């Protein structure tokens, strides 16, 4: 962990109480230390950390558009290289910025092989503008542009598999993490910034306001996503999955029923058919990444 980095993200920001993304900001700077240049696309994190003329970032920080976040980071990398400087460059975007609007530049920067780390804090919708669905919104989640109602069961498409897409660009290191496991987040960011080339870390960042749960439950909700298999924490090195967090899985209802965005699956009556489809997504994840922890059965007693 970088020395004396605890104070680099200041407490004077304006995030909602219990905001997962605020924890991501803090963990990023814990991992990187002060010799870092942050490039931040528009979104909640940019808005709550830098209300003009204030900033919570005690490192150089630049605001980009959604579209050119990775292009700005690429330019900074090229300039630092030319000057023989060694600061780390970290681009940060929300899921809307990363999965959708900034995808073109992100793809270009990874293809060109710039030496930077891209971090997506994934709160699974466009939160800052009022909870619109993005390519990261999970199946059946109700958002303002995929509202559950008589004719709709919420978001009709599965979450885009962006880590696999970026690994397919030849990225040397791609990882997923969750704010429910803070030291794992720090370790993965440290690994990413110290791996030459373009690296990607996608961090699950529950949003109490957009998902509909009490702010003190943020970590518990993040943990349930992993324990149900709806979020998988893994590392990929040179396109190969090298490390996976294993779990004894719980049924997906334990995660879904805690959040208003899935309330329509339980009220006015339980929609078993839709819940089974979400369970199938978790089951598929478990098989794909081999996350199921096999409980060791007690050995048979030795009979003399
Ligand atoms: C090209 C463009 N389209 C739309 C907007 C309006 N806008 C500002 S913040 C935001 C939401 C961003 O969502 P995400 O990247 O997921 O970050 P979050 O707000 O969820 O943290 C949007 C759509 C914009 N600034 N630029
Ligand atoms: Mg978002």
Give structural notes.
The protein is an alpha/beta fold. It has one domain: Thiamin diphosphate (ThDP)-binding fold, Pyr/PP domains (Rossmann fold, 3-Layer(aba) Sandwich). Helix content is 35%, strand content 14%. It is built from eleven helices and eight strands. It has helices at 20-32, 44-49, 69-83, 95-101, 103-112, 162-167, 182-193, 208-211, 218-227, 253-256, 272-289, and strands spanning 36-40, 61-63, 88-94, 117-122, 173-178, 199-204, 234-237, 240-244. It has an eight-stranded mixed β-sheet with strand order 2-1-3-4-6-5-7-8, with helices on both faces. α7 links the parallel β5 and β6. α1 packs across α7. The radius of gyration is 20 Å and the shape is globular. The protein starts with 19 loop residues before the first helix and ends in a 15-residue tail after the last helix. 48% of the residues are buried. The chain binds thiamine diphosphate and magnesium ion. Thiamine diphosphate binds at residues 21, 42-45, 66, 93-97, 101, 123, 126-129, 134.
Question: What labels would you give this structure?
Answer:
304 residues; binds thiamine diphosphate; eight-stranded mixed sheet; binds magnesium ion; single chain; disordered N terminus; globular; Rossmann fold; 11 helices; alpha/beta
């Amino acid at each position: 962990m970088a020395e004396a980095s605890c104070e680099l993200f200041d407490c004077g920001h304006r995030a909602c109480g219990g905001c997962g993304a605020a924890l991501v900001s803090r963990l990023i700077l814990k991992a990187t230390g002060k010799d870092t240049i942050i490039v931040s696309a528009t979104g909640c994190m940019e808005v709550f950390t830098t209300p003009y003329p204030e900033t919570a970032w005690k490192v150089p920080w630049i605001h980009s558009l959604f579209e050119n976040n990775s292009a700005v980071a690429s330019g900074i990398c090229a300039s630092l290289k030319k000057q023989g400087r060694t600061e780390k460059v970290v681009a940060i975007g929300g899921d809307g910025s990363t999965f959708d609007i900034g995808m073109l530049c992100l793809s270009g920067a990874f293809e060109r092989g710039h030496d930077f780390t891209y971090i997506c804090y994934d709160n699974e919708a466009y939160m800052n503008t009022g909870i619109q669905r993005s390519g990261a919104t999970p199946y059946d989640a109700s958002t303002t542009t995929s509202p559950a109602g008589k004719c709709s069961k919420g978001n009709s498409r599965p979450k885009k598999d962006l880590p696999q897409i970026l690994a397919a660009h030849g990225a040397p290191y791609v990882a997923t993490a969750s704010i429910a496991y803070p030291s794992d987040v720090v370790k993965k960011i440290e690994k990413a910034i110290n791996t030459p080339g373009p690296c990607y870390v996608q961090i699950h960042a529950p949003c109490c306001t957009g998902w509909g749960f009490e702010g003190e439950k943020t970590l518990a909700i993040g943990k349930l996503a992993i324990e149900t298999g709806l979020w998988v924490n893994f590392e990929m090195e040179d396109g190969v999955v090298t490390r996976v967090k294993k779990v004894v899985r719980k049924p997906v209802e334990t995660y879904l029923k805690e959040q208003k965005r899935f309330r329509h699956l339980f009220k006015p009556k339980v929609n078993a058919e839709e819940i089974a489809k979400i369970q199938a997504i978790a089951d598929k994840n478990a098989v794909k990444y081999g996350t199921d922890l096999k409980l060791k059965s007690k050995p048979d007693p030795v009979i003399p």
